Structure formats: C-alpha cells, structure tokens
Amino acid sequence: MGISAYYHDSAACLLGDSKILAAAQEERFTRIKHDSSFPQRAIEYCCSEANIQPTEIDCVGYYEKPNLKFDRIIKTFEHYAPRGFDCFYQAVENWIGEKSKVQEKLVSIFGSAEVHYNEHHGSHAMSAFYPSPFEDAAILTIDGVGEWATSTLSHGQGSKVDIIKELRFPHSVGLLYSAFTAFSGFRVNSGEYKVMGLAPYGRPKYVDKILNELIDLKEDGSLRLNLDYFTFPYSQKMSNEKFEELFDGPMRSPESKLTQREMDLAKSVQVVVEKIVLRMARYARQLTGSSNLCLAGGVALNCVANGKLSRAAIFDNIWVQPASGDAGGALGSAYGAYFKNDKHERSIQATDSMNGTFLGPEFNDAEVQAFLDKKNIKYRRLCESSFFSKVAELISEGKVVGWFQGRMEYGPRALGNRSILADPRSPKMQKVLNLKIKYRESFRPFAPSVLSEDVSEWFEHDSDSPYMLLVADVKEDKRRAMTSKEKALFGIDKLNVPRSSVPAITHVDYSARIQTVHADTNPRYHALISKFKEKTGCPLVVNTSFNVRGEPIICSPTDAFKCFMGTELDVLAVGNFILYKEQQNEELKENYENRYELD
Questions:
Q1: What is the tally of structural domains in the chain?
Q2: CA 87/CA 398 separation, integer angstroms
Q3: Pairing of the two strands 401-404 and 571-574
C-alpha cells in the first residue's frame, strides 16, 4: 500500500506484487476538493477492491520523509526569523497535531506491516518510471517543493531508480509558476491550470523581466530565484511589493475582472517555464544518455510545456505519469516499498502499467438500478448497441451528456469514465459548458477525446496521448479562415471567434489538449465516439471532467445524479441507463435545481 497525505491531494494505492490493483484520491470520497486529510476512505476502497483487510498488507510506503520536511521548516524559520513566526507556529501546530504521528497512524491501521518512507521526489520519480514502458529512462520531477528538493533528475534502469541531481528549496520552478498564479488572482495548487489556459490570450511582454530580474537560469535548467521579490519562504503570500512594482501594479483580486496584464503575465511565465523544462530535458539526455524520458511532479501536468518538449524531439519517447501531482506520490511510494532492497524483478508492458489510469471504484448495472429505483428516478435501460447509438445521437443534437462508466480515473483528468461530453462542432458549446455546466471562467478551453486511429488527420500529432497530457495544434485543413477584422482582435475578445470545424475544442492559438481513445483500454468510450463518427463524420467529442467548479470529480452514482440535477446538463448516461432532465419529477427538480451558483 502506498499513501500520500497531509499536504494536498491525499491518496492511496495498492499493488498486488507489481500490478496496480486500485488507486484513488481521498477527495473523491469526502467530496472536499484537494482533500489533504489522511486517506482513510481511499485505503478502505483499495482494500475492498482486493477483498483484503488492511492488516493483511505486507508493506506500506509513505510518499515523503516527515522528519526531513520538518527540518526544512525549522531551518527556513531560523534563516528568516523573526519574519514568518505566524506561519512557523501554524506549521509546528500542524506537526504536533497530526504530521508527527504518521508512524503511529500507520501502525494503528496496518498492524505489523513494514513501513518504508520515501523522499517526496523519489516517490514522484518512481511513479513516473516503474509504470512506464521503458527499461531505461531519464526521469525529471518538477514541482513546488517536497522535503528540500524542488526538482530532480534521475536515471531509471530495470528495477532501480537513482537520483543524480536535485534543485533545492527555495529555488523552485513550481513555486515560480505558483507566484504568478497567486498574483493573477487564482488559488495556488489549484489555479495553475487557469494560468496555462489564459496564456494564449496574452503576449510574452514580461519574459525579459522574469529572466533578468526574477531568476538566474543556467544552461542545465537549474535556477536561482531572486528572493528580494518573493515572500513564500516565510509567509502565506507568494510575493511582495517589489514584485508588484516590477509587474505594473498590485495583484488581481480573486473573482475581479481579468485584464490584459494577467493574460500577458500568464503568457510570459508559461514561456519561461517551457524554456526551463527544455533545458532540463537536454541536460537529462546528455547526463543519462537515455533516449527515453519520464516526467512527474505538478509541473509535469503542464501539457503545453509537454507538447513543446515532445515536438523538440530531444528524446525519442516521452511518458508522463497521469497522476503527476501529490496523489501520484502514493503510487510511487508503493513501488518504492515493493522494489526496496532489489527483492523483485520489474515486468515491463508494451504501453504502460496504468490500466488507462482506470483504477478507482466501479458500479455495475444492478447497483445503479437499485439506486435509481430507490430514489424514484425515471430512466430508460437500453441494450449496449442501442445505448451507444442513442447517446451519440443526443450529443450530435447539441445535448450535453454526463457520462458515468466503469472504474473512476486516478489523477486530475477525466478520461472517459467520469466525463461531461458534448459536440465539438458547436460554436456555442465552449461558452455553454463553462457558464451553464461547469460554472467557471469563460476563457477556459475544453479538450477533445479523439479516436486514436484518427488523431493525425485532425491534429498536428501522430502518436498516443491517452492521458490528455500533450497539447498539439489543429490541422491546417480543419481550421477556419479568419477575416482581417477577426485577426485584429486582442486578448479576451478573441474568445468567441470560431477557429476551426471543431470550435468547441480549438483554443485561440489553434491548440488543443488531446486525449487519444483506444479500444483496448476503454472499449465503451471508444464505441461511443465511433458511433458519433458514424453519424457526423467527426471522430472526436468534447470531454471535460464530471464536476463543477470547486468540487472534485464525481465518484458514485449519487454524485453523478446530484451534479446532473444541480446543473444544466441535459442527459445522464450511467451504465446502460439514460436519464433525461425533463422527465424527472418536480420534487426531485426542486431538491436539486440551482444547487450550484457561480462562485
């Protein structure tokens, strides 16, 4: 069993020998987004999936070394004291309350199981390499901070992972990006996706300021932050007044109107992070000599940077851990415990060992029907062939469909089992989904799920991207010619101009975050998109996670129904059942209508 806890995105993962049996984030059960609490429910789920008790587990891996992390907190306070006493006091209070009792907690649950503590970035590195399809690979892990490390370069060979180089706190690529996230008025550790999505609306006008004033960037990708501009080592704030002076005024207030400055900031920090990642990758290739690269850590979820890295062809092959954030540390720590002391040989699969990252709970038709009947919910049950055809037809008619199938995804992306689906050909769909379904900012783009066999006909991309972790451009012949007036539009005014024959998934720079769908890893999703292609000639659908802003991705039929009734979703397709919003009785509608408001 591998466990991550007490920072954000707590999770548990269970290996049976070297096979991943189950993995899930705690947030999916508690319904608290980025839940950092001890993953009790996730542990219980993993054990139930394997039909075992926690005391039957041989070995437990924990994703970091708590004492080493506390050492960093102490030494940082010593360096900056008396500044930051409030933050230090809170950290100590948290430590005394729960974090110092990790061993005690693990023993109370797992009894006499051997406990193995991995370093945070070691857990990331192992989560990236061990499930990958490579015998030999360079490994880059890049995030905010673990214990002391903020980025590492490792070499994976067979069943061994060796860390070669590391960048240490407070100098951090992830914290640099998070400083701009906070300055732009978004929440750190959850708003970084928004900065990435906002970047194409902006100009890289602050790149030189970042490179000349904020960071000292070396050829190997290592960097030093100019700490005159940052306060995160000793404060809840990320940056200070000097940062504000450098970037033309105070930070944006959360929820206030976005201006061109925030768009330009987003573009500028994105360009800088891409430059850093490319330099790190070149150095990794040089140092390890490997033709393969594995990535993990929160920055590895920056799919725009990943796309640039793929196109740079520094490595022959790149594999990114789909649960690259701290949730994936649970998987890495489980592997760390398993391969400790070279006791086991590693088996390598042709694609990877993640099972499409469909590693969470599943609900069969009998369980779904029992729930629907108990709640007096109106539904139609169809045979499989009719089911896929009907859902495809509904999507082609402009309906927005909640899609609940199979095992829940592990990691931050919905990949076709807990997804909201729509027609990518609709010029209105991006706005409809953002404002009426997801209740989030209108500028944010949506991703396409495309049949793997058709990806190269629609995108400038000819390889697999099963985990929605690469961005590529829409093909020239699918793009729409722009008028001179449209070309002259600036910033957010670009938003409502259709740019291709699939405008709902085409960002303002003609890019898309691609998920390739494969019949062997997700036959039901593949069958649905194939039916949609039969009806429309279009082999892709809009795919966004089945949740609303501020809530985790749904887990159970109950979660699915609540989200269905509380938003403007038209249809819910769960198992082989189809539910229509207008057919539900008035009492149910009153109970759930307008449950969500734009926050």
A1: 1
A2: 50
A3: parallel
Placement of tokens 């649950």 in the chain: 109
Cα angle for residues 128, 194, 139 (degrees, 5° grid): 15
Residues 441 and 437: their CA atoms lie apart, in Å, by 11
pLDDT value for 481: 87
**What's at 463, amino acid-wise?**
S
Count, residues in the chain: 599
As a whole number of angstroms, the distance between CA 186 and CA 494 comes to 22
Mean pLDDT within 108-124: 96
> What letters, b where the CB count within 10 A reaches 16 and e where it falls short, cover 265-299?
bbbbbbbbbbbbbbbbbbbbbeebebebbbbbbbb
The pLDDT confidence band at residue 595, using thresholds 50, 70 and 90, is low
**pLDDT recorded at residue 592:** 66
CATH classification at residue 484:
3.90.870.20
Domain assignment present for residue 217? The answer is no
Instruction: Tell me: pLDDT of 121 over 90.
Output: yes
Provide the 10 A C-beta neighbour count for residue 246.
15
Which structural domain, as residue segments, surrounds residue 586?
365-592
Q: How far apart are CA 298 and CA 128, in angstroms?
A: 12
Label residue 594 by pLDDT band (50, 70, 90): low
Distance CA 99, CA 13 (A): 20
Whether 541 and 395 have beta carbons less than 8 Å apart is answered as yes
Beta bridge partners of 544: 420
Residues 498-555 pLDDT 10s = 899 999 999 999 999 999 999 999 999 999 999 999 999 999 999 999 998 889 999 9
* CA gap 82, 230 in Å, rounded: 16
Helices vs strands, H then E, count in the chain: 21, 21
Question: Longest C-alpha distance within the chain, in Å?
Answer: 71
Domain annotation covers residue 164: no
pLDDT in tens, 349-407: 989 999 999 999 999 999 999 999 999 999 999 998 899 999 999 999 999 999 999 99
pLDDT at 597: 41
Residue keyed to tokens 């802003």: 549
Provide the 10 A C-beta neighbour count for residue 198: 26
Section 44-71 average pLDDT: 96
Asked whether residue 480 is assigned to any structural domain, the reply reads yes
Q: What integer pLDDT is reported at residue 114 of this predicted model?
A: 95
* Of 87, 1, 86, nearest in space to 38 by CA: 1
Task: Report pLDDT for 599.
Answer: 28
Backbone angles phi, psi at 461, to 5 degrees: -160, 130
CA distance 106 to 379: 44
> Is residue 450 assigned to a domain?
yes
Distance CA(188)–CA(177), nearest Å, equals 9
Contacts of 85 (CB under 8 A, 6+ apart): 77
| pLDDT score at 398 | 97
Spatial distance between the Cα atoms of 191 and 238, rounded to a whole number of angstroms: 14
